[in-house]
From TrEMBL:
Organism: Mycobacterium ulcerans subsp. shinshuense
Protein name per the record: Cytochrome P450 183B1
Family per record: Belongs to the cytochrome P450 family.
SUPFAM superfamilies according to UniProt: Cytochrome P450
Domain of life: Bacteria
Skewed-composition ranges (Basic and acidic residues): 444-462
The keyword Iron appears for this protein: yes
Length: 462
């Protein structure tokens, strides 16, 4: 790797920059642009180059022929998850994307949204006035049940559903650690390794049993699993995916679609609790529309502030906060030669927090996405779901789910922070809010008969 690319300071023998990536990775990433547009880091014995500008990140995202899925993070991710759409190399991606795209067509969103609304209403309907809730755990319950129901309709027995949710939680707990540690450590008989291997094997068995049962029944239930099983190559009546490929796809969707959306809603609720004036505006927007009922897909066009809050939350806390690619050939990036086989890293979190791209980048400001202000934001500077051919296929599903959940919760509950430990991002595969417990207060007293809420002005709604 060319010596003209500066190296981040304080690399340790053998470990390189692994410790700052484990202890305080966000601060470490934000320190890199001061070193240059491209900065070299070391993760154990491996070397990687971090792209620190929006232009270089866009170049990586838009050329998946040269910058393929792979590198330090994705190679380990693929070992754990198989070759689903989110992790497979380019040679498999275009075929998989073409076959799976109909399952995520926007025409299917209203049907999926009905499942989302049902699951949100069922979860928050069990809360008690004054209850203190573990927000990430509650949101994981919503998104996990939503995705499992959307995938399998009601064909998965309740015990299997609960076990699948527990297994997903166990897998999420160690994903980032396993991405940064060498593979031989996976085989050590530690409690964490045993728990992970049991959860992973059990989840794949649960999914495999459901797939085999659905194939044998030959019934189209109108869910995601039916859509995947019905996929065919053009001009062929042969099924497109083997059972193993279907399992890989479903595992990938669970990993990409459960925790990421859950944590987006959790962060949004935290931000509203921290900004009561904005929470008040949310109530003024949603009360005339919902009056306490669950939000539906048809309501979303009238919930413009809610949608902007989801957008701003994804900017502040993007789910895929650090991503790697592998160079498939020698290439010049930012004027530097990158050899074939090199790992190239980019970070949506880093791009979203650059002060030259976003005014006051650490401030929660949903109104930066008002049309007249959003026009000033660079076209390629907002990348919570990546970009190019590898942009996440379920991005509309995820943002729809987040908006419906946020609106339904805010229509019925106020969120109050508890005194004590500050909420900080706990860095894992996603950015999880550490210490996030909120007290929920029922909003029934806020709404009097005939007065669902103050109507927003056109300027406030945007």
């Amino acid at each position: 790797m060319p010596t003209s690319i500066p190296t981040a300071p304080a690399a340790l023998p053998l470990l390189g920059h692994t410790l700052p990536l484990l202890r305080n990775p966000l601060s470490f990433l934000l320190s890199l642009p001061a070193r240059g547009d491209l900065v070299r880091i070391r993760i154990g014995p491996a070397t990687a180059v971090v792209a620190c500008t929006a232009a270089l990140t866009h170049e990586i995202l838009c050329d998946d022929r040269i910058f393929d899925k792979g590198g330090i993070f994705f190679d380990r991710f693929r070992e754990m998850l198989g070759d689903g759409l989110g992790t497979c190399p380019r040679s498999q991606h275009r075929r998989q994307r073409r076959l799976l795209q109909p399952a995520f067509h926007t025409q299917r969103l209203p049907g999926y949204a009905q499942t989302i609304s049902t699951q949100v209403a069922a979860t928050v309907g069990r809360w008690q006035n004054g209850q203190i809730i573990d927000v990430p755990a509650e949101m994981m319950a919503i998104t996990g049940r939503t995705l499992l129901t959307t995938m399998f309709s009601n064909s998965l027995p309740s015990p299997a559903l609960r076990q699948a949710l527990d297994d997903l939680t166990a897998i999420f707990a160690v994903l980032y650690w396993r991405m940064l540690t060498p593979p031989p450590l996976d085989r050590l008989p530690t409690v964490g390794n045993r728990r992970y291997h049991r959860a992973s094997a059990r989840l794949r068995h649960t999914i495999g049993s459901a797939v085999a049962g659905r194939r044998a029944a030959g019934v189209d239930r109108g869910d995601l699993l039916s859509a995947i099983l019905a996929s065919h190559e053009v001009g062929s009546s042969t099924v497109a995916f083997t059972d193993t490929e279907v399992i890989d796809q479903i595992v990938s969707f669970f990993i990409a679609g459960t925790e990421t959306t859950a944590l987006t809603v959790a962060w949004a609720l935290y931000l509203l609790a921290e900004h009561p004036a904005i929470e008040q505006r949310v109530h003024a927007e949603i009360d005339p529309v919902l009056a306490g009922r669950a939000a539906t897909h048809a309501d979303l066009p009238r919930l413009r502030l809610v949608n902007r809050i989801v957008t701003e939350t994804l900017r502040l806390y993007p789910p895929g906060w650090i991503i790697s690619r592998v160079a498939t050939a020698d290439v010049y990036l930012g004027g530097h030669r990158i050899p074939a086989g090199a790992t190239v890293i980019f970070s949506p979190y880093l791009i979203h927090h650059r002060p030259d791209l976003y005014a006051e980048p650490d401030r929660f400001d949903p109104d930066r996405w008002l049309p007249e202000r959003a026009r000033a934001i660079g076209r390629n500077t907002y990348i919570p779901f990546g970009g190019g051919a590898r942009k996440r296929i379920g991005d509309n599903f995820g943002t729809t789910e987040a908006a419906l959940a946020l609106a339904t919760i805010a229509a019925n509950w106020r969120m109050q922070r508890l005194p004590g430990l500050p909420v900080r991002p706990a860095v894992a595969a996603s950015l999880r809010p550490r210490n996030l417990a909120l007290r929920v207060t029922a909003r029934t007293a806020d709404r009097t008969p005939g007065e669902p809420g103050r109507r927003l002005t056109s300027h406030e709604i945007g």
